[in-house]
Amino acid sequence: SLRLFTDTKRSVKNGDVLHFYHGSLNILCKAVLIDRDRLGPGEKGYAQLRLSESIAVKNGDSYVVRFYSPLETIGGGKILDACPRKHRRNDPSVIESYKIKESGTTADKILLAVKEYAAGFETVEQLGRRLNMDTGFLRQEIAINAEKLGLVKLSENIVLNESYVDSLRSRLTAILKEYHEKNP
User: Fold this and answer.
1) Rounded to an integer, what distance in angstroms lies between the CA atom of residue 107 and that of residue 12?
2) pLDDT per position as a tens digit, 31-44
3) 10 Å Cβ neighbour count for 12?
4) 168, containing H or E segment
5) Residue 42 near residue 20, CB atoms below 8 Å
6) CA distances from residue 74 to 3, 17, 40, 71, 124 in whole angstroms, order as listed
7) Tell me: the pLDDT tens digits for 72-105?
């Protein structure tokens, strides 16, 4: 999430270059605004800040941004996804996912992470790192909410959502049917 100060005279347009400050680190980034073309003073929105080099951050970390030239502090925010994929701008599903990452319930965040990373068959430990959650706590939440969230445990360490399992089942059935038609 990115919020500009109410007293700044600057606005951020999609594609603007900014200085990104996290801890003692200062690097350049390109602001790709997800839900709008321009962010004005006092406004808050979602952005992917494409950094000029790799850094170590985690979900929930705070950061500050300064305008490129002249150097002026204009705002900051919280990191909602430390390792995102590139997203299409103005996509309602992407905007909704950022809303969940920012202020959703724990169960909503778990379901979203399972859906986003199902294709990689990520382990509970990997999901815990992505969500910045303790693995033991995450296992407990999955056990409590599995049925309500439509989660399927493949093993003690791999959890998928039902809709992904259904799509895999359909694809596998189609592959087997095609194979058996070619090789009766």
Assistant:
1) 33
2) 999 999 999 999 99
3) 24
4) helix 162-182
5) no
6) 9, 13, 10, 9, 38
7) 999 999 999 988 888 889 999 999 999 999 999 9
pLDDT for 97-135, tens place per residue? 999 999 999 999 999 999 999 888 999 999 999 898 999
Angstrom distance (rounded) from CA 66 to CA 86: 23
The token duo for 19 is: 């200085």
Q: What are phi and psi of 108, to 5 degrees?
A: -60, -40
At position 171, the amino acid (one-letter code) is R
Q: Are 58 and 82 in contact (CB under 8 A)?
A: yes
Of residues 38, 2, 37, 45, the one with CA closest to residue 20: 2
Q: What length is written for the chain?
A: 184
Compute the distance between CA of residue 59 and CA of residue 105 in angstroms, rounded to an integer: 15
